[in-house]
Amino acid sequence: MDIDTTRRALVAAIVGGGAIGGSLSPVRGYLNRFAPLSGSAWRDATDRTNRRVQSPYGEATVRYDDHGTAHIETEESGEDAERALYFAVGYAQAADRLFQMDLQRRVMAGELSEVVGEAALDSDEFHVRMDFAGGAEANLELLEDTPTGKATEAFAEGVNACRDSEALPLEFGLLDYEPDPWTPADTMLMEQQISWGLTGSFWTLRRELLAEKFDAETVEELYPFRMDHDAPIVRDDDGDSEAASRRTAGPSGGFAGDSSNLLDWLSAFESPPGVGSNSWVVSGDRTSSGSPIVANDPHLTLMAPPVWYEMNLQTDDVSVRGVTFPGVPFVVIGENDAGAWGFTNSGADVIDFYSYETDDSGDRYRYDDEWRAFETEEHTIRVADAEDRTVTVRKTVHGPLLEREGQQVGVSWTGHTATRTSLAIHEYSKSGGVEDFLDSTEKMDLPTQNVVYADREGNTLYYVTGKIPIRTVDGEEIWGTRVFDGSAGEAEWEGFEPFGVSSWEGFVPFEEKPHVRNPDYLGTANQRIEDDPDHYIGEQYSTPYRGQRLYELLDERAASDEPMDAQFMRRLQRDAKSARAEQVVGELVAAAEGDEGLGQAVETLRNWDYRMVRDSRAALIFVRWFDQFRRETFADEFEKRDLGEEYYPNDWVLATLPDDSRWFGDEGREAVMVRALRQTLEDVDEGATYGDYNTTAAITHPFDQSFLNYPEYPTDGSAYTLNNYRKESAVGSSWRMICPMADREQSIGILPGGNSGEYFSDHYDDQLRLWADGKYKSMRREIRGETAIEFERDDSGGDDR
Question: Mapping DSSP to helix (H, G, I), strand (E, B) and coil, where does residue 112 land?
Fold first, then answer.
């Protein structure tokens, strides 16, 4: 058989969709018969060619460098310059990521079942009930007639120009459908997706459930409102937390009854464990160059293609390079002529839940002193190869009502009102220094993030972004840690208008949010922001292990005679020493010392430097042991209460439980640790190392087909190291960036995969091995590469736009 000819025919069939019949399964086995791409036939089908495209806004070019980064420039001036640029950006993103963009908007709009069938109905029902599309429309209205709105419109036109003129990615053929035209509202949906992924949490409902399952003392022991550590983002010598503790709000009991089905359903639509990030900024007083350095590596879901898209944009007055989310026109994290910036999740609580008194019919709810009808809409979900489903969407004065099997709860989320986030992100690209950047940051209403910034004038900055609600009961500020009485209007947000334009007067003023101007050095790793902030910010912070390690390394270097530089920043991002291991391994070794059959493992752990690196056997034993230790401690009691592992307390809580805690039973903590070690050694292969376990195999394409998935490479890091990679949930460093302000051409970055989502591209996965090995590529802002697409002014009507 002529393999290349067969492959070519198969590709044609897939892209054309004719041979597949809308079902993936008939081709799965056939496709798996082929080795990874090779040969001229595949290259012939994928080579880029120079293309000339008509643009209503004028001339622009798209070039691709050696790593597939899109370099886009225009020589147009005036108002047309930005629109010419973002028309080209839309075209380039669609050329590289159209299926990913379409898939994401379908998820957020609740339209996935239309192309994949009944399996996506639960997802569609959730997204329809939450009405993310309504939030997106509210955002769009706020941008009308602004430069950001016009740029977003030009971007959508560019996407559609590509959709109309280029061959569709093979995924559309596999699913046998064609994408609808892209709209500016779809870009706003992408903003909704990003914001929900970073701030959407149902932890408050879980806390209510846990209060039913356990007594108050147990809940306080296992789920403390605050973890006791000394490495918050903003450090001081006070450490007094009494004021904050007084304002906590325990479970209300207002979410009583069998809520497990509702929670099980909702849990599928939260961010996976481990979503977070690292960032730090160091002033010129601490660097060898005398200028600041910014570093950032956001930890998001890793997939093929990556969540980020890198681009380098240039007009006559703007030069910006960095990454954005496919479907979003503007650089989100990056660097321009004036400075550089990056984000980590702040953990702020911007979602509340409400219970209501309802009448006998269930059609009305009490609010203040009157009965109100739920705002109701019948929504049809289209389903491929099955009957369409009708969902009754209901809302209250607070926002959507989530319902399942007799349980219901109202939701207020800051993403359900119009936000200026797109405007802020757009302005970042054009900012001329720290004051511009601050002005834009004030407009970033969502998501709530820690932003670090430095500029070439030597300024450094840390600020918490986003609108943070103030809840009050009887005139006192309280935490948003329980379900509130919606009928009584308890703790509701003043000035919040769901699906409209909010006035925000009941939210933390910008100047009162945590911030530091010109910090000497400051590190963020999703840990607690401050010990005692003026207002409640949140409680769901990450365990402090990464934050502790980050400050340990920064403090050591600052105390030394050696200034910081870009090489030091690289070592920090690649640092694989586990503070979690350092916390407990000594105790484990002491407990297992002298036990029959454990001598070799004890010696291996005793001589370990706590680094989660690929050639370490101790790292493998430790990571598997801690999982087993967690199960040995909690499994029996939690299973009795029908609670799964997702309800286990975090590892900091387990590591700090006292020896005589009841969770270790009569045998005590040391015996449980040793028992877990014996079980672990039975499950770990002889001679295996961490690199056999910790591989990139978890980074998959949404179809999870071997030919679309990325290659498997061993890598370093864990969920508890600065080099963050959580293979269990495919979460990790989704982009690594280091930007020294001293030299404009020395910034570096790397993606966990490739910049192209086109399977046939040389840049589908060309950065993955570099990423797995902790290497980087240049982020030079010089426009480089062969011209791939040229845009020419379409005089047939563009001037009238």
Answer: coil
